[in-house]
Write a structure and sequence with these properties.
The complex is a heterodimer.
Chain A (H helix, E strand, L loop, with lengths): L3 E4 L2 E5 L4 E7 L4 E9 L6 E7 L4 E4 L2 E6 L4 E6 L8 E9 L8 E2 L3 E6 L1
Parallel strand pairs in A: 2-11
Antiparallel strand pairs in A: 1-3, 3-8, 4-5, 4-9, 6-7, 7-8, 9-10, 9-11
Chain B lengths: L4 E3 L2 E4 L5 E6 L6 E8 L3 E9 L2 E5 L6 E5 L5 E5 L8 E8 L9 E2 L3 E5 L1
Parallel strand pairs in B: 2-11
Antiparallel strand pairs in B: 1-3, 3-8, 4-5, 4-9, 5-6, 7-8, 9-10, 9-11
The chains are: A mainly beta, B mainly beta.
Chain lengths: 114, 114
């Protein structure tokens, strides 16, 4: 069964600090991995997408890494801001067959305090 | 604003009832996806339509059905509602059906079943 596990479940940091969120997956074969940011009560917004051959992808203060051998990804947030408070969701898509059914992690809830 | 619209924003109904959720994709997008998000499950993929045809099916109950109309808007019908159906329901759209296409999420419909 395809699974995506995220850690930690929740995280509290001070404004200006860095943090790293983890994502482990069992989806195989693997097509791509996305990180989404979801503000409370709103729809998710894509931050990064990485395919099998990519190791890192940046989007401003967000940097995602991927190790396809160990099936692990991380999202690093630099110099956190209050607006980074949100849920961060890891989503992995399979590459088999003609259907497209992504597997979502349960997310990491990040709270940034002033 | 993602360009995806969903109505209604909130819906309160009773067990056993039937409701219809509506989604209008971004202009030009052919693919529509439906997701359910509850507190203990995270985002769950329900179903995908591409240009009016069902493309992929996820964890969608038999009591739920969906369709995509010629103007590309989509409706999700939920019947014989149970308390456990209370959740946020998101619609997303993308330009094509491929798994690498970014999905843009709507603001969601919050369904409360009493």
């Amino acid at each position: 069964k395809n699974q995506v596990e995220q850690s930690p479940q929740s995280l509290i940091i001070l404004e200006g600090k860095n943090c790293t969120l983890q994502c482990n997956y069992t989806v195989s074969p693997f097509s791509n991995l996305r990180w989404y940011k979801q503000d409370t009560g709103r729809g998710p917004v894509s931050l990064t997408i990485m395919t099998f051959s990519e190791n890192t992808k940046s989007n401003g203060r967000y940097t995602a890494t991927l190790d396809a051998d160990t099936k692990q990804s991380s999202l690093h947030i630099t110099a956190s801001q209050l607006s980074d408070s949100a849920s961060y969701i890891c989503v992995v898509s399979p590459s088999s067959g003609g259907s497209y059914i992504p597997t979502f992690g349960r997310g990491t809830s990040l709270i940034v305090h002033p | 604003d993602s360009g995806v619209t969903q109505t209604p924003k909130h819906l309160i109904t009773a067990t056993g009832q039937r409701v219809t959720l509506r989604c209008s994709p971004r202009s030009g997008d052919l693919s529509v996806y439906w997701y359910q998000q509850s507190l203990d499950q995270g985002l769950q993929f329900l179903i995908q339509y591409y240009n009016g045809e069902e493309r992929a099916k996820g964890n969608i109950l038999e009591r739920f059905s969906a369709q995509q109309f010629p103007d590309l808007h989509s409706e999700l019908n939920l019947s014989s509602l149970e308390l456990g159906d209370s959740a946020l329901y998101f619609c997303a759209s993308s330009s094509a059906s491929g798994r690498n296409n970014e999905q843009f999420f709507g603001p969601g419909t919050r369904l409360t079943v009493l």
